[in-house]
Amino acid sequence: MKNIIKSIGLITLICFSFFYTEKVINVINEQDPIMIKINNMKDNFKQAAVDASIDDDEIIPGIYGREVDVNISYNNMRKIGIYNESLYSYKDIKPKISLEDNYDKYITSGNPNKLEVALIIKLVNDTKLEDILKIIEKKQVTINFFIDYTYLNKNINEITKIKRGNFYSYGNNGTYTPDILVFSNNLLSRIGNNKANYCLSKQKDTSLLELCKSNNMHTIIPTIEGGYLEITNNLSSGNIISIDTNYNNLSKLENIIDFINKKGYNIVSLEQLLEERRTY
């Protein structure tokens, strides 16, 4: 019994020693001029989170906020012995309303504060992939390909040649079923570099929305669907643009890309357009 009491006392003393030592270190650190400077300046670098915008069953992504991680920033600066703003480290502040928590809403646009748009091309039937690849390689842009299940199986060798594209399932020519969605996503995950995060619909479809939600996927309804005239007449920041896959539209793909670039917008992947986290 005495040995047990001694052991408990020794453990208690060790724990107290660690606690006391940590407290002493914290007090010393708080008096360090570098830490004092960080605490005085940290609010100048704080950026508030912006909630995603919800309108009934539609959603547009928000933006994560950020705040200074005081302890990591202090350790970074203490290593060189001076206060240096370039050594600040940050931690994210999640919006109260975020895409991450709203799979039951249709995404209709990216954040309009980003000077970015995303281009979608559906690979269906006899779409001429070779011509598309020549243009996107020449222009060095990323295209988001929504691929019909039959097209995927018939043209998988050609699809693997795509270097500047992200791949997503387009079901059976736009009609999604649980089996086709799972099979397509498994196949696309093996040949692509992106996660199959999105379904695509021309219009609101509650059964599709529920199916994609059950697979932790967002459902996208493009901001613009059509060809050169529809795009040039309606283009704005944050647009998700689906280009109809007929010959006339695809023959003008290069002109569409040039027009978007001249308007000052970057053509990006859906992941980048819809990303709510900031890059530092």
**Number of helices, counting only DSSP H or I runs of 4 residues or more:** 12
Quote the distance from N terminus to C terminus.
58 Å
Low-confidence spans: 2-27
Structural class: alpha/beta
| CATH-defined superfamily of the largest domain | Glycoside hydrolase/deacetylase
**Might you state the CATH topology name of the largest domain?**
TIM Barrel
Radius of gyration: 26 Å
Write down the domain tally. Answer: 2
User: How confident overall, as mean pLDDT?
Assistant: 87
Known CATH architecture of the largest domain: Alpha-Beta Barrel
Helical content stands at 40-55%
Please give the number of β-strands. 13
Q: Shape from CA axes? A: elongated
The fraction of residues in strands falls at 15-25%
Written as H for each helix and E for each strand, in order along the chain, the element string is HHEEEHEEEHEHHEHEHEEHEHHEH
Structure description:
The chain is α/β, with parallel strands linked by helices and 280 residues long. It has two domains: 2-97, no CATH class; 106-274, TIM Barrel (Alpha-Beta Barrel). 42% of the residues lie in helices and 18% in strands. It is built from twelve helices and 13 strands. Strands 6, 7, 8, 11, 12 and 13 form a six-stranded parallel β-sheet that branches. It has a five-stranded mixed β-sheet with strand order 1-2-5-10-9.
Give a concise summary:
The protein has 280 residues and is of the alpha/beta class. The chain has helices at residues 2-31, 33-41, 70-78, 129-139, 149-154, 156-159, 178-191, 206-214, 228-234, 247-251, 253-262, 270-274, and strands spanning 53-55, 58-60, 65-68, 90-93, 106-107, 116-123, 143-147, 165-169, 198-200, 218-220, 224-226, 240-243, 266-268.
